[in-house]
Design goal:
Mean pLDDT: 92
CATH architecture of one domain: Distorted Sandwich
InterPro entries: Chondroitin_lyas (IPR008929), Hepar_II_III_C (IPR012480), Ulvan_lyase_C (IPR058848)
CATH topology of one domain: Beta-galactosidase, Chain A, domain 5
GO molecular function: lyase activity
Subcellular location: Cell envelope
Main location: other
Radius of gyration: 30 Å
Pfam family, one: Ulvan_lyaseC
Oligomer: single chain
Length: 899
């Protein structure tokens, strides 16, 4: 890729800049704002804490620099040997690693990372890079000493990404010193930062972007790594007066900024998060250019014009908002990928705003993007880990910047954004004192004191691009319930069919595996991104993408389709206690049809459970797989007698594309015809003992227990620990006899309410499932699943036709509640509810006085004690029967009386 050098001036642009670049600083702040920032430090503890943190960290280096000015610059990783002061580096043709160098500059040049990943051991364990103090001064070796976390010994290894990370750590020190100089006028800090910048810019000015694939960057094997030099681009902005006064050669910097801007404009990928993730570095570099025509040339590609060349290039904000953000602002990749591109886009937009470009006014969608993640969070404020990602949470950085701009324009979004920020701070997930240099310089001194309600948590939702569907019940961190079902083909997806995650006791307990050591590691490609690492069903032991794929990027698995859901995304729930999702999937690799019905049953303000019914019609075999955080898993019969599990090898098929071969400590129990139960014993991040109880109605299937490779998504308490799992195997189709599991999370051992889960076998077939869940207080639920709105079952004193239904009985067997989830009718004894316009959803609650309240989304007819009552229109919060106030329909409000 040759660097484009044609320069022209933009005319008739929709966004124009009116700020002269002769005055520094100007990218993030201006001289006129210095006193306000100093006042922020003086009057706000959080800002003072940030300043002191950076001051205390960099000051020892500055003091050493006064006596030994060579110490810090000698630790910077440079090509220092004459004849090997390389100006060109060459990749392997695909942008994965460097293969050779050429050229010889008259001064040392900046070393570039030799590989796109940080080094790991063969088994995937990370290395710990050396500290600045441990680095060899003026090191000329291409290798480095790093700590092996498996052996606790230092190995002499190819450093890979450690090169940019080590230089990046020194770059951050330079930025801290530059800002302290600007705020305090202490030239000792300026000299320290300037000497680092001077060595860097002098060498980089002789270098060219890496020769090879378009993913390669200017000073890193990939453009993403060029972000490590963003701190020096910003430091220049603060140091400019000192650099000019002291006679530093400023031409070096202009040359380097031009190369950064060009590389990040035309390289990298536009068809994923890549280009957006470098957008702030691109904008900062462009804004530092003195040549206004060059600056306008590069900024046009940020604002309005795309630079698409095959898969390479950069998309403008105009295209990004249209193609890469959902209507509510979520980046169209896994949750862990939202923060990376969106935070950089918002930082870039903020700098453009600071320099006269009204970007947020032109693209108000950026306000929604700044806090979109919170909507999809579990009650502990972490999001689902589906796809190539870890378990991310809402970025306070994007929200803070968005708030600053929203306050500037008095935007209507400010109320929701403030509610989101108060949620993050109130839950202890964010402290403003941890917001770093960006927070010190750009965040508002105080969160706006606008009138705002608590953050509005949706009861259900979907991310259509990922076919992710979630149901939530309660937002309390320990008492809340939430599950998500997901599966689709999109960038950074996994091969997982209809995978799910379950929440309980303050943690995501039924975890998705997330990523392996890195995308190229055999564990990631053959396990973490494959079926066996997820809570799903594997067909014929061969479920896989077509063709088989395990690396990063899009993997072709088809997509989950929604058949029914109550409440639908954006709608209020019919019942405060019940909700469900029915999804369908075709496993293309095996031609297997699958159906998954999941539901939440809330039994009190602090207890509840999940129902999971999974049908799979493969005639060879079907494996139901479930992973949970925990230290142990025990299976027993209904009387708590442990099962005697037999050590075995997990049955594999062919090349084992699902990845079962990575299970360890495998045991099995077959020929079981009675109901079973299991218990995962675990701890949450707070140290509380939490349990996931599992109940298995009687079925003719084989049960396996095992442990999985350690994941990055199970919380810090399970870092580097293998996790327990179970599978249920059917060596025939599992459509007419589906997998049925009831999961009950609980804090503490004694807080389970379920005593048994039984299948009413005579009513179960390929179209319907009926189970009875019994509780310690004698109450019970009859739960119905149907494959369609017309699926009908009839018992001695009940009947049902629909996708999902619940009959709730008290300890004396009296009817408490009826719930019909998208169907025709539900009936018990002499009470029957029929929707006039099927399918519909309805919920009725009865009290001890024989009075009832109703909530419905369709007209219904109620048959009660021989009386026919018509409810002519959808109702919620209305009074029926006794005409008293209905207290139980609002999400999160506990109904009056005993449940």
């Amino acid at each position: 890729m040759k660097r484009v050098i044609t320069i022209f001036f933009i005319v008739n642009t929709s966004i124009s800049c009116a700020v002269s670049q002769e005055v520094h600083p100007h990218i993030l702040v201006k001289n006129a704002e210095k006193e306000a920032i100093l006042e922020k430090i003086d009057k706000h503890e959080w800002a003072e804490s940030i300043f002191n943190e950076h001051y205390n960290k960099v000051t020892p280096y500055v003091k050493r620099h006064q006596k030994d000015p060579e110490w810090i610059v000698s630790r910077y990783l440079m090509n220092r040997v004459k004849g090997k002061r390389y100006t060109h580096a060459y990749d392997d043709g695909s942008g994965h690693f460097l293969v050779k160098y050429s050229g010889d500059a008259p001064v040392p040049t900046v070393r570039v990372s030799t590989h796109k990943r940080s080094p790991v051991t063969e088994s995937g364990a990370p290395y710990i890079r050396p500290s600045i103090e441990e680095l060899i001064p003026y090191d000329t070796s291409q290798f480095i000493w790093a700590l092996n976390t498996e052996t606790n010994q230092k190995d002499f290894i190819d450093p890979g990404q450690f090169v940019s990370q080590i230089n990046g750590e020194i770059n951050d020190l330079a930025l801290s010193a530059a800002i302290i100089y600007w705020l305090k006028d202490d030239e000792n800090y300026a000299k320290f930062a300037a000497d680092i910048l001077n060595q860097w810019a002098r060498g980089a000015s002789y270098q060219e972007p890496i020769v090879g694939a378009c993913r390669t960057g200017f000073l890193d094997i990939q453009t993403l790594g060029d972000n490590q030099y963003q701190a020096l681009i910003l430091a220049y902005d603060f140091l400019y007066p000192f650099l000019k006064k002291e006679g530093y050669e400023l031409g070096w910097y202009q040359n380097v900024f031009d190369k950064f801007a060009s590389t990040l404009t035309f390289r990298g990928y536009w068809n994923n998060n890549w280009y957006a993730a470098v957008s702030s570095t691109l904008v900062y570099a462009a804004l530092n250019l003195d040549d206004k025509e060059k600056q306008d040339y590069y900024l046009q590609f940020v604002l309005e014009k795309d630079t698409i060349n095959g898969a390479c290039g950069h998309l403008s904000l105009a295209t990004t908002v249209k193609d890469w953000l959902t209507p509510d602002g979520h980046w169209k990749e896994p949750g862990g990928y939202h923060n990376f591109p969106v935070s950089n886009l918002i930082k870039a937009a903020f700098a453009l705003e600071k320099n006269g470009y009204p970007v947020f006014q032109t693209y108000p969608e950026l306000f929604d993007a700044s806090y979109a993640m919170l909507k999809y969070s579990f009650p502990n404020l972490y999001v689902s880990a589906f796809g190539d990602t870890g378990r991310a949470s809402q970025s306070p950085e994007t929200l803070e910047i968005g708030l600053a701009v929203a306050a500037k324009y008095n935007r209507p979004e400010i109320a929701g954004m403030t509610a989101a920020m108060n949620t993050l701070i109130g839950r202890g997930i964010y402290k403003r004192s941890n917001s770093g240099i960006l927070g010190l310089l750009t965040y508002l001194p105080d969160i706006p004191a606008v009138e705002s309600k608590p953050f509005s948590w949706p009861r259900s939702g979907t991310l259509d691009f990922a076919r992710f569907f979630f149901q939530r019940n309660g937002t309390d961190e320990k008492k809340g319930l939430m599950y998500g079902v997901q599966g689709a083909s999109y960038n950074h997806n996994h091969c997982n069919g209809m995978a799910m995650e379950l929440y309980g006791g303050g943690e995501v307990m039924g975890v998705d595996a997330g990523t392996g050591p890195n995308y190229e590691h055999y564990l990631h490609q053959n396990y973490f991104s494959q079926w066996a690492a997820h809570n799903t069903v594997v067909a014929a032991g061969r479920s896989a993408s077509t063709p088989f794929s395990g690396g990063a990027g899009k993997k072709n698995i088809g997509q989950v389709e929604l058949a029914a859901m109550e409440p639908l995304p954006g709608n209020d729930g019919i019942s405060p206690f019940y909700s469900f999702t029915d999804t369908r999937y075709l496993d293309r690799s095996t031609g297997t049809n699958q159906l998954r019905t999941m539901g939440i049953v809330r039994t009190s303000d602090s207890t509840g459970y999940y129902l999971d019914i999974y049908r799979s019609d493969n005639q060879i075999s079907n494996d139901y797989v479930y992973h949970n955080i925990g230290d142990t898993l025990f299976l027993s019969d209904q009387h708590d007698t442990p099962l005697r599990m037999e050590p075995t090898e997990y049955p594999l098929s062919g090349d084992d594309h699902p990845g079962f071969r990575f299970f360890s400590n495998v045991k099995k129990k077959e020929n079981i015809s009675k109901s079973l139960k299991g218990a995962f014993h675990a701890k949450n991040r707070a140290g509380d003992e939490v349990m996931m109880h599992v109940f298995f109605p009687a079925s003719d299937k084989t049960y396996y227990t095992a442990t999985s490779p350690a994941t990055k998504t199970a919380g810090r308490q399970y870092a580097n620990k293998r996790l327990p799992l179970f599978t249920i195997r059917s060596e025939k189709e599992a459509w007419t006899e589906p997998f049925i599991c009831v999961f009950e999370p609980a804090v503490g051992k004694a807080n389970s309410t379920i005593t048994s889960v039984e299948k009413i076998a005579e009513l179960c077939n390929g179209e319907n499932t009926v189970i009875r869940v019994q509780h310690t207080d004698g109450s019970a639920e009859l739960i119905f699943q149907g494959n369609s709105a017309e699926a009908t079952v009839k018992g001695n004193n009940f009947s049902f036709s629909g996708f999902f239904g619940i009959i709730s009985l008290d300890m004396d067997g009296n009817l408490q509640q009826l719930y019909l989830g998208e169907g025709d009718h539900i009936a018990y004894d002499d009470v029957k509810v029929t929707t006039s316009d099927a399918p519909g959803s309805v919920w009725i609650q009865f009290d001890t006085k024989g009075e009832y309240s109703i909530s419905t989304n369709k007209p219904v007819t109620i048959h009660l004690n021989g009386t026919e009552i018509h409810v002519p229109k959808p109702t919620k919060g209305s009074s029926m029967g006794s005409m008293r106030d209905f207290q139980a329909v609002s999400y999160g409000i506990k109904p009056a009386g005993k449940r």
